[in-house]
Amino acid sequence: MQQIPVDTAGATLMVAQPPQQKIANQKTQERSVDTRTGEFLMTLDVLFVMNGNAEVVKVTVAESAISGELAMGTQVALTGLVARPWENEFNGQKRHGISFRAIAVTAVDAGGSKNLKAA
Q: Tens digit of pLDDT for each residue in 3-42?
């Protein structure tokens, strides 16, 4: 699957919705698991502000890769953020979009917000 690195240098990143368990099956409430590591996955909505434009994106990250208190409005750094285009067909309808995945999400203090960079 193609992965596109996302450069967060110069962007302000803030938690729009705190981390939540990523669910693989809504009926059974089975949690999503990283197929390589077996670790549970989490999602959080991040407000991505750059050049006067703001967008909320949902980012998936391993549960152990979340550090700091990530309450709404907390500034964060996203390590290794990538975008992945996806497409599927369900009940005869084609759907497509972009998913975002990070290696880690870290709360940063207000003084460090100017230096947010993906590793």
A: 999 999 999 999 999 999 999 998 999 999 999 999 999 9
Say how far apart CA 119 and CA 106 lie, in whole Å. Answer: 12
CA distance 49 to 88: 29
pTM higher than 0.70: yes
How many CA atoms are closer than 13 Å to the CA of 83, on its beta-carbon side? 9
**CA separation for the pair 48, 59 (Å, rounded):** 11
Give buried/exposed letters for 85-116 (b at 16+ CB in 10 A, else e): eeeeeeeeeeeeeeebbbebbbbbeeeeeeeb
Give the residue from 99, 36, 43 showing the smallest Cα distance to 70.
Answer: 43
